[in-house]
């Protein structure tokens, strides 16, 4: 039978299409398939933010931060798409995409900016439950002739429950190849002390929310000092993220923090804009604590 388009069924189709467009579930599915397309077609990119040594002011390590540039729409930040990637099983391919791009970028950074550069890569704790991902990481690093001793993985716990035994196996597999680990956003996840006790991490990154409260909350300041003391006892390094003011900078330096990172010192930037001079912290006037 011929498919005749009448005014009636055209308008019915159109209104169904409009309803679907407005339907949050349909919008969500479209977003997810667009994200899958973006991962497969290199629509993602990376910005890098240096982590400066508190004493020497030099940055031998830069953190990779994912960005999604959607043609005709604009740039999405990870806060928008990482949770969806985690919910929909895309986080593994996203984190592996980031890792492979970092391998390519690391070679360039070593030859053009600083031969000692290392890269810190954020990994969802869900990725860290997969031994398959650990093996893929080893395979990709070999393909690109990158030593895993030049990589630190920042494990981002967020709010996900995780199987600690699987995460330990993942970390041990990569640690045996020279990789290092840090506990990101420390103090905010589900089980920071269990992770601290059981995972082979050698660095903690104190969450931005504690740094934000410096000068405003004595409790936060006490927690920060205690975290630093605890890390020293455990022979671990401490990084402060989210340094935005002189006061925060000097507080963390005086408290004995090892590395400092934040907009005050350097914002995340694209690979093409990184210059050697950016790997030296700018002078920060003493704020008088
Ligand atoms: P994070 O690992 O804690 O990264 C720090 C976030 O704080 C970044 O946001 C960075 O741009 C921002 N930031 C840095 N300095 C300052 C500062 O002084 N003030 C303020 N207000 N913010 C600052 P971004 O790039 O939006 O990333 C958000 C989160 O998304 C990251 O938090 C990380 O958990 C996650 N993420 C980013 N890239 C990846 C990735 O490739 N894989 C995974 N699994 N997660 C990623
Ligand atoms: Mg991080």
For the report, how would you describe the main beta sheet? 8 strands, mixed, barrel
Kindly name the structural category. alpha/beta
Give the ordered list of helices and strands. Answer: HHEEEHHEHEHEHEHHEHEE
Query: What is the radius of gyration computed over CA atoms, rounded to a whole number of angstroms?
Result: 22 Å
Going by CATH, the architecture of the largest domain would be Alpha-Beta Barrel
Number of domains: 2
Q: What is the straight-line distance between the termini?
A: 83 Å
Low-confidence stretches: 1-8
CATH class of the largest domain: Alpha Beta
Q: What proportion of the residues is helical, as a percent range? A: 40-55%
Number of helices: 10
pLDDT average, as an integer? 91
Indicate the proportion of strand residues: 15-25%
Tell me the number of strands.
10
Instruction: Give the full name of the CATH homologous superfamily of the largest domain.
Output: EAL domain
CATH topology of the largest domain: TIM Barrel
Shape: globular
The kinds of small molecule bound in this structure are: ligand C2E, magnesium ion
Biggest β-sheet: strands ordered side by side in the sheet? 1-2-4-5-6-7-8-9
């Amino acid at each position: 039978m011929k498919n005749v388009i009448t005014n009636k069924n055209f308008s019915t189709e159109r209104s169904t299409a409009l309803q679907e467009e407005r339907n949050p579930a349909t919008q969500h599915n479209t977003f997810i398939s667009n994200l899958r397309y973006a991962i497969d077609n290199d629509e993602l990119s990376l910005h890098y933010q240096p982590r400066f040594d508190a004493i020497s002011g030099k940055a031998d390590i830069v953190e990779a931060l994912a960005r999604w540039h959607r043609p005709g729409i604009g740039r999405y930040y990870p806060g928008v798409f990482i949770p969806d990637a985690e919910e929909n099983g895309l986080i593994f391919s996203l984190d592996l995409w980031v890792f492979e791009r970092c391998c390519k970028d690391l070679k360039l950074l070593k030859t053009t900016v600083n031969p000692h550069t290392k890269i810190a890569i954020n990994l969802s704790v869900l990725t860290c439950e997969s031994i398959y991902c650990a093996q893929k990481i080893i395979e990709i690093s070999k393909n690109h002739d990158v030593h895993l001793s030049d990589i630190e993985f920042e494990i981002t716990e967020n709010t996900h429950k995780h199987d600690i035994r699987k995460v330990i196996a993942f970390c041990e597999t990569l640690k045996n190849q020279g990789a290092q680990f840090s506990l990101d956003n420390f103090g905010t996840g589900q089980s920071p002390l269990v992770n601290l006790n059981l995972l082979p991490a050698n660095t903690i990154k104190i969450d931005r929310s504690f740094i934000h409260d410096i000068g405003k909350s004595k409790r936060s300041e006490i927690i920060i000092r205690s975290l630093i003391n605890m890390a020293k006892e455990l022979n671990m390094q401490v990084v402060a993220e989210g340094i935005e003011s002189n006061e925060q900078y000097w507080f963390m330096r005086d408290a004995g923090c090892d590395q400092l990172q934040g907009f005050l010192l350097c914002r995340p930037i694209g690979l093409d804009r990184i210059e050697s001079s950016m790997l030296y912290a700018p002078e920060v006037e003493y704020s008088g604590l």
